[in-house]
Amino acid sequence: MKNFIFISPILVLACALWGCTQGPPASGESPSAANDAALNVGQSGVQDDVSQQNILQIAAGSKDHSTLVTAVKAAGLVDVLANAGPFTVFAPTNEAFGKLPKETLDGLLKPENKDALSDILEYHVYVGVIKTDQMRDGQKLNQVNLKNVVVNVNEGKITLNAGTNIIASIPASNGIIHVVDGVLLPPEK
Amino acid sequence: MKKIIYLIGGILAVIAILWQCKTKSAATASASDAAEKVYVSPGKHDEFYNFVSGGFNGQMSVYGLPSGRLLKIIPVFSVFPENGYGFSDETRAMLNTSRGWLPWDDEHHMSVSETNGEQDARWIFANANNTPRIARIDLSTFRTVEILEIPNSAGNHCSPFITQNTEYVIAGTRFSIPMGAQQDVAINSYKDNFKGTLSFISVNPESGRLKLAFQILMPGMDFDLSRGGKGPSADWFFFSCYNSERANTLLEVNASQNDKDFIVAVNWKKAEEYMKAGKGVRSKSHYAHNIYDEKKHSASTTWEEDVLTLDPTVLKDFVYLMPCPKSPHGCDVDPTGKFIAASGKLAAVIPVFSFDKMLQAIESKTYDGEYQGIPVLKYEAVLHGEVQKPGLGPLHTEFDANGNAYTSMFVSSEIVKWNVQSLQVLDRVPTYYSIGHLCVPGGDTRKPWGKYVIAYNKITKDRFLPTGPELTQSAQLYDISGDKMKLLLDFPTIGEPHYANAVPAELISKNSVKIYKLEENAHPYVAKGEGQAKVVREGNKVHVYMTAIRSHLTPDNIEGVRMGDEVHFHVTNLEQDWDIPHGFTIRGSTNGETLIMPGETQTISWKPDQVGVTPFYCTDFCSALHQEMQGYIRVSPAGSNIPLKYWTGDEPQVQ
Q1: Is A13 on the interface with B (CB under 8 A)?
Q2: Engineered SS bond to A25: which of A29, A94, B212, B230, CB 3.0-4.6 Å?
């Protein structure tokens, strides 16, 4: 059962992609139109095995971030994280997502809450590269959703919004990923 | 718990992909539709000229739309081997500055001249970003005819934008710098010593001649982009700025601390009144004013000294600040002149300001305090509204004639169409990849021509055949004639396609000069016929008055030149026939080659470095006997008594 659940997104993804490229063209469009559409994938679709990996590729390759990657896809932010950036991304682990109250997470993953999901994900992204040694106590990082993440530094230990820890930092071609042990929730106001 | 996440995640992924699939099909016209829309059959002309800045290459390139065919490269702030700009003696002065002769600058934005807020396309203005200058290009000849250096400026990014009757071209500073006598100051004294300026350069309505009218002294922020008002707001100018924190290091972090930066509103009519009333402060400076005389076919530099400065903390009521979220970039006035769309490049909303509300807020003094002595208007009081969730990284907005706006989104790599009144997002299309500026023909004026939006992208990656690490840069053409934008064409560009204007072809093509009239040629070394061709020695300077016509040079044999001489070949193209240029160079030429249009005179200067006979020739394939269009110059040792002698055909017996 568990295996099936893991595989199912991949299967449906494959089907969807197949449908996108091979399916009958919509009425009024020539067959080549559908092929053109398949060519025009965003920056996440660029084939490049030589360059340093970008934030999206690193996250997609991490088994601890599958929930984050799923959420990023659902929110339509895949191409954003493959963009030139540069970005600082606070990347909650699967375990961090697991700490959220069940009703909160379920609510976010409902299609009608795509905006709320995007808002939370954008709260994890800063445009600019902030390494941990550039973080200062009381520093406010104004995130992509325009809300601030507050940095606390206490005797050399960094926390975000008074409680979320940075577990590891991974440089990427288009910025830096700070792996965090909690999901950052934007302040209401 | 996790199973549910995966299951829901999977379903979401499918929805997302299907949705993407659907929008992509809709956003890309079918191949045959697109081909039909961009195909310009052989011998037919394009519908628009598209002037595209080359960014770091300092040039401007001209494309036809919708075909995307490259028509011309116009050198502006950089030398250009194709036509000798910056190499020939006639054009070198165009690149003079108070910092010396500069072969290469960085060109970002342009404005096409306007009358009553509509393109008249007599001139196009361009900015040098690095060593601040403004250029005027004549659109009858497609040549750079004037370059004015901007004193008290660094990083001339926020320019060259114009008022609706081209009364002024403005130039705002990106880098604030120490002003005044004491320039040697600690960098961390930025907040005390560094200032920015907004320069207003008047444009003579007949000749186009530029003059630095006045500079407004501003707090040390970074000014980014700008637009003049239109219609009801025609007396105003709007500037975006970032770094209101006035940070001088690690701006990546330190210039993003304030929740809001500003849109600066300047009442330039009032500033002009202050200027005329003698209210400003006059000071001395030193800056180059380079003019290309199209009759003399020569550039010369005048050194200007005078600067008039207006200080808004002293002369009140002509500069106001409107708070704007997060490092605004674009600052674009809609065709009605009633709304100003600002694009906070790090923001997730597009604030749209109301000009009427701004006037009311000024009238009622609805201030939110002051910033560095300048009144700040209350955000809510001047806001028409915010476009919610437009995309990420809004940069720049242009408009169509139907009340819609098109904003480029760098971070989410898309163009978003929204309605100016309702602020509703109507459509979005991806760009490939990472769009910077965009252009709608006339989309910055009171009369947009619409039809297309063109994306100027920052990243190309896999869109074209690879050419090593250095790839072509690119633009993309979208059809906006329907409700939905449709991608029609990718086309490669010269340099970084930073910004662009598009102009209906007939506005320009009807005025395009075909030849320079020989009888009007006032070059001091012109030879208006072969009978006037001669060689004249003035001390160690030897002036060759040479003519070129299919298919010989006159003179083509020259003797009596000695080591230590400087030889100036002034070549006049005697042709009076459309599209018959000649070229010229000589072996060992240190200033390369030149290209001479019909009726024009251009000069190559040459200092012989070896005794002997050296060939010269026409470098442009002009005719069937182009290869025969050649000659020799004999160089004898210093002190030689070989007489000065020159001929084509029969050698003269006595000199």
Answers
A1: yes
A2: A29
Distance set, CA B220 to CA B96, B327, B372 (Å): 28, 15, 9
- Answer for the pair A134, A141: CB distance below 8 angstroms, yes or no: no
Full strand arrangement of the beta sheet holding B328-333? B328-333, B339-344, B349-354, B383-388
Instruction: Count how many pairs of residues, chain A against chain B, have C-beta atoms within 8 Å.
Output: 169
Judge whether B156 is closer than 8 Å to chain A, CB to CB: no
Contacts of B19 in chain A (CB under 8 A): 76
The rounded distance, in Å, linking the Cα atoms of B79 and B136 is 16
Query: How many Å apart are CA B70 and CA B561, to the nearest integer?
Result: 43
Phi and psi at residue B373, to the nearest 5°: 85, 5
Q: What is the ipTM metric for this complex?
A: 0.82
Instruction: Indicate yes or no: CB of A74 within 8 angstroms of CB of B32.
Output: no
The reported pLDDT for the residue numbered B12 is 52
Architecture in CATH of B40-509: 7 Propeller (2.130)
**Which tokens sit at B256?**
């993003």
CATH of B518-647, one of 3.90.1150.10, 2.50.20.10, 3.30.450.40, 2.60.40.420: 2.60.40.420
Q: Is A27 on the interface with B (CB under 8 A)?
A: no
pLDDT for position B281 = 96
What residues does each domain of chain B span? 2-37, 40-509, 518-647
Q: Which two tokens stand for residue A161?
A: 């919004």
Terminal C-alpha separation, chain B? 105
Please answer yes or no on whether A43 and B8 come within 8 Å at the CB atom.
no
Residue A21's pLDDT band (cuts 50, 70, 90) = very low
**In this model, does residue A159 exceed pLDDT 80?**
yes
The CA distance from A130 to B348, in Å, is 20
Chain A CB contacts of B462 under 8 Å are 46-48
Contact B25 A33 (CB under 8 A): yes
Q: C-alpha dihedral over A90, A96, A102, A108, to 10 degrees?
A: 20
Instruction: Kindly determine whether residue B412 and residue A79, on different chains, have CB atoms separated by under 8 Å.
Output: yes
Closest to B202 (Cα-Cα) out of B108, B285, B136 = B136
pLDDT at position A39:
63
Residue extent(s) of CATH 2.30.180.10 domains in chain A? 52-180
Rounded CA separation B148/B156 (Å): 12
CATH architecture of A52-180: Roll (2.30)
Per-run averaged pLDDT (10 residues), chain B, 655 residues: 52 49 53 91 97 97 98 98 94 98 97 98 98 98 98 96 98 93 92 96 98 97 96 98 91 82 97 96 96 97 97 96 90 98 83 98 97 97 94 94 96 95 96 95 98 96 95 96 96 95 98 97 98 97 98 97 98 97 95 94 96 97 92 97 95 72
Any idea of the CA torsion for B593, B597, B600, B602, to the nearest 10 degrees?
-10
Close Cβ partners of B510 (under 8 Å, ≥ 6 residues apart): none
